[in-house]
Amino acid sequence: MADHIPLNPVRKNSKRIPYINSARRSRYSLEDESSNLDEMPLMMSEEGFENEESDYQTLPRARVNQRQRGLGWFLLGGWKVLCGSCCDCLARICRRKKELKARTVWLGCPDKCEEKFPKNAIKNQKYNIFTFVPGVLYQQFKFFLNLYFLVVACSQFVPSLKIGYLYTYWAPLGFVLAVTMVREAVDEVRRCQRDKEMNSQLYSKLTMRGKIQVKSCDIQVGDMIIVEKNQRIPADLIFLRTSEKNGACFIRTDQLDGETDWKLKVAVGCTQRLPAVGDLFSIRAYVYAQKPQLDIHSFEGNFTREDTDPQINESLSIENTLWASTVVASGTVIGVVIYTGKETRSVLNTSYAKNKVGLLDLELNRLTKALFLAQVVLSVVMVALQGFVGPWFRNLFRFVVLFSYIIPISLRVNLDMGKSAYGWMIMKDENIPGTVVRTSTIPEELGRLVYLLTDKTGTLTQNEMIFKRLHLGTVSYGTDTMDEIQSHIVQSYAQVPSQPSGGGTSGATPSRKTQTSGPKVRKSVSSRIHEAVKAIALCHNVTPVYESHVGVNGETESAEADQDFSDDNRTYQASSPDEVALVRWTESVGLTLVNRDLTSLQLKTPSGQILSFHILQIFPFTSESKRMGIIVREESTGDITFYMKGADVAMASIVQYNDWLEEECGNMAREGLRTLVVAKKSLSEEQYQDFENRYNQAKLSIHDRALKVAAVVESLEREMELLCLTGVEDQLQADVRPTLELLRNAGIKIWMLTGDKLETATCIAKSSHLVSRSQDIHVFKPVSSRGEAHLELNAFRRKHDCALVISGDSLEVCLRYYEHEFVELACQCPAVVCCRCSPTQKAQIVTLLQQHTANRTCAIGDGGNDVSMIQAADCGIGIEGKEGKQASLAADFSITQFKHIGRLLMVHGRNSYKRSAALGQFVMHRGMIISTMQAVFSSIFYFASVPLYQGFLMVGYATIYTMFPVFSLVLDQDVKPEMALLYPELYKDLTKGRSLSFKTFLIWVLISVYQGGILMYGALVLFESEFVHVVAISFTALILTELLMVALTIRTWHWLMVVAEFFSLGCYLASLAFLNEYFDLSFITTWPFLWKVSAITLVSCLPLYIIKYLKRKFSPPSYSKLSS
Predict the structure, then answer these.
(1) Closest to 402 (Cα-Cα) out of 1019, 924, 937
(2) Kind of pairing, strands 549-550 and 556-557?
């Protein structure tokens, strides 16, 4: 996979290899692994794999060939690197950040804070009132093209260098700058308005005198803030109190981590137990918080109350925090502010927008430098042929100004107007409605992409889970047979109506005492369905929530108070949409979860009876255990049951032997379903008491607590009865599969970066066909040290043509020690899935790809957590979705559905790049042809630095005479949109940059030299008496040649192109009447003038038409083969 990475092979059968490092000699030994790894390469040669993996410490260090930094390096761009480094260093010194520190925050007392903390204001503006003009001018004149125009325009203020009129130089430059400044000003005002809106949101602040309203930007560290339901949390808070009785609330974190699942947060016990809200000011308490950091999934702190004896200490973790930019989903919460503004987790994870410059602009910038070099050489040649007589230096500069049309100032104007036209076309395309172009400077980037980095939740998927399959081993139920399950459930609970708490016990009776030894009799399908549905309805972390509603007499009734368990106003809250889907399904088949708190849970049967269960223990889902469990006691019978559900890899060894689980899991996974295995185990009172004692003892141990707790729980997880296998589908966005297929065929490599779990990400990668059916998937094992990363990378290198799935933590370790090797390997994978990625990691991956591959990257996402990635990529696309508009507003292009990206890239990306390449080269050709004529003219007339065409002729040539036909190239297309979508392979050619390269540029230079020479020499040979006839003949032939060359360049005619051609010709013919200053009007109405112009034009254009015809016939481009 990475055979070309230069790393040394291993000598076979060598246990110790001497290693020479400049002046010292050291040997590897197994004892000192960390020091060894500093001198150890990632093994990348085939021979080395014949060694045992345990011998990886003996691999010799690979030498990476470092470039020698000498004078050549300095002259060839090293000076730029050094200047850049110096500027960065100065900027760092000027913007040296205050060191972030841990803090002690007293409740409701911002004045007690010893340090000054940042203001809680959101600021997305690039400039302020003082930096706007210098900033915009710098962004414009850092381009060689614009700086060159500025110098040439300024030179016209020197009388001895003046050639022509000032307006011919300053008007186009002023126009470009004015357009740019207006565009930037509009963007800046919009940003300012958005920031002002966010910073002006009002919140209730608790003070000694009661509640007061404060703006979001005026909130300080130590303030106690009240946040209502559905309100955005304005700063990072520690959760003190909630209106919910159970002391917990749900929050939505979609703008922080991109997950639409609700997260459960728990209030600090000490403050939640206070009788009233006002008592928060009667206690002396403080929060100790760690220093601000990037990680949104962890927090360490302490809550201390001093006015009690002994003082109360509570440890604080991530479940006691409410991060800024999340939204309260249930109840009203009160929190104390610990971090504000720039120190909040959401801001620390946001990268600032950079000014994006398209690859085409950089390529044109390089070509203009080459043209400038040619211009200077030509000027030196002219002065040398003069013999360096007189004030030759002044003449040299006059020649430079005279040939300044080689680099036409209209290049920038035409390209900028072209970009605006492409943006307008994209927004007007009826096939991709709702698309918005927010950055009009980079539409050509859409046609040059090699890597597409996409979010999962809300981008590829709708994040809507639907229960699809229930498998009991002998029988399987799909969406069309769910009514059978419903009838079985109704039947089960209708059998024993006389029992006090409903007939829920009858279905479970047969198997109650026989679980550990295995069922003695084969249970009926009905009882097995009943047990499976009951297990699914009990084993979860879902809470039903009832909206308060207004009664008949106008009083607000609390749903919990009168036990109004009506289906109309019930919603489910959980940290995983999978669990909600399972509970919704049990409701649809008759067993409804109606109430839940921290200690109990109630189900409603089809006949309306309530089954109550006491929750004894809950073992939450973790990415390590891959399962969750719950122990409940049924109140009516006193039976204790341990239910468990989890991933098949974790559950296979826990359940009793069976011969169908593995096969059915594979079948469901191939259908793109997320599978969960459900099992149960009945416990006697003695068994449970024994377990509880051991469990509590393990929880109190100081050393290896997690291991001891896990060991106690595992003692229960043996020989469990397998109840069923469930299949849930995360619905994909419309047409995701064909769109990904289209992009893959276009040669675009797709990386999925998600904050979701590894199993979920892998499942979606398969179901969306991001990973094709025939491809293997290599799941990168969790690594935490350099040695582990080394072994795992060696294992990965053996795999060929397989997709990579890696977690954020492992990725971080690999990048720390083996950045180059890892990126080299990953880039050769057909698809890469990175799960559990933080927003900053997503942006880091984008930057890595840009640095290591030098290819163009595109990032697409829909949540606030994707903003950093979108801004870091060369081209950012945001989707307006359920997760808000944050990504859409930060992106360069905003679309409404993922499927629109196909047309955006294949059609609009292709057209924008092809058109801009043709337009840029044609505008250069227009300048080079007139400069060639000027050179021929000057060389014939004793190398005089006198302009051939003056005043309005030059202005008219660059504008009214040729501008419209040349600009009409923005309507040209080489293939129809349908063809571009049908054959996405055509897109691969674009990424090679063949439409604009030094080769195509050289062809245009040769054409310009040929035509300029023919036009000038032809006019000089054919003129008879007066010199003014030369100007008339050559200029008219030049205009006709340019109009014919536009026609030659066009591949698909548009009616506006025809209009532009005839309009320009009409304008020129009409203006001849007013150009008596330059032309002899009596001569241009004669036959000799007409035939001479026609002859010269024919000689300049006809050979090119013949060459184009022959090339199309004998060496047609790929697109012409398709269109024919």
Answers:
(1) 937
(2) antiparallel
Residue-wise pLDDT for 726-783, tens only, equals: 999 888 889 999 999 999 999 999 999 988 778 778 888 988 989 887 788 999 999 9
21-30, 195-204, 516-525, 655-664: segment of lowest average pLDDT: 21-30
Can 455 be counted among the known catalytic residues?
yes
State the chain's mean pLDDT as an integer.
82
The conformational region for residue 639 under phi > 0 = left, psi -120 to 50 = alpha, else beta, is: beta
Give the count of beta carbons closer than 10 Å to the beta carbon of residue 94. 7
Q: Mind listing the pLDDT tens digit for each residue in 863-913?
A: 777 888 999 999 999 998 665 677 888 899 999 999 999 999 999 999 999
Q: What number of residues does the chain have? A: 1124
Give the tokens for residue 799.
């795999």
Contacts of 1051 (CB under 8 A, 6+ apart): 972, 973, 974
The backbone torsions φ and ψ at residue 721, rounded to the nearest 5 degrees and listed phi first, read: -80, 120
Per-residue pLDDT of 72-96, as tens digits, reads 555 555 555 666 566 566 655 555 5
Residue 756 annotated in ligand binding:
yes
125 residue type, one letter:
Q
Of the candidates 941, 1078, 927, the residue with the CA atom closest to the CA atom of residue 406: 927
Token digits for 483? 């009514």
User: Is residue 915 part of an annotated ligand binding site?
Assistant: no
b/e map of 776-805 (b: 16 or more CB within 10 Å)? Answer: eebbbeebeebbebbbbbbebbeeeebbbb
166 contacts 154 by C-beta, under 8 angstroms: no
pLDDT for the residue 171: 78
Residues 6+ apart with CB under 8 A from 896: 433, 434, 435, 879, 880
Q: By the 8 A CB rule, do 289 and 343 touch?
A: no
Q: Where are the domains of the chain?
A: 219-343, 359-408+908-1121, 451-460+733-895, 466-490+526-544+569-728
Strands 321-322 and 236-242: antiparallel
Q: State pTM to two decimals.
A: 0.72
Q: Is 692 annotated as a binding residue?
A: no
d(CA 366, CA 377): 17
Find out whether 97 is annotated in a ligand binding site: no
φ/ψ of 753, rounded to 5, equals -115, 115
Q: Are 386 and 1016 spatial neighbours (Cβ–Cβ below 8 Å)? A: no
Spell out the residues 6+ positions from residue 267 whose beta carbon is closer than 8 angstroms to its own: 239, 240, 241, 242, 247, 248, 249, 320, 333
Q: Comparing C-alpha atoms, which of 239, 209, 206 is closest to residue 220?
A: 206
Task: Pull the structure tokens for residue 448.
Answer: 């040059």
Q: Would you call 922 helix, strand, or coil by DSSP?
A: helix
DSSP annotation string for 982-1032: H-TTHHHHHHTT-SSSHHHHHHHHHHHHHHHHHHHHHHHHH--S-HHHHHH
CA 661, CA 593: separation in Å to the nearest integer? 28
Residue 563, phi then psi, degrees to nearest 5: 55, 45
Burial of 1076 (0-12, 13-18, 19+ CB in 10 A): exposed
Give the separation between CA 1057 and CA 712, rounded to whole angstroms.
80
Q: What's the fold here for domain 466-490+526-544+569-728?
A: Calcium-transporting ATPase, cytoplasmic domain N (3.40.1110)
Among residues 455, 578, 639, 874, which one is catalytic? 455
User: Which CATH code fits 219-343?
Assistant: 2.70.150
Known binding residue 674? Answer is yes
3 state DSSP class of 70? coil
Task: Find the farthest-apart pair of alpha carbons in the chain and give their distance in angstroms, rounded.
Answer: 124
Dihedral of CA 381/386/392/395: which sign?
negative
Is residue 564 annotated as involved in ligand binding? Answer: no
CATH of range 451-460+733-895; options 3.30.70.3340, 3.40.50.1000, 3.40.50.300, 3.40.50.11190: 3.40.50.1000
> How high is the pLDDT of residue 1123?
62
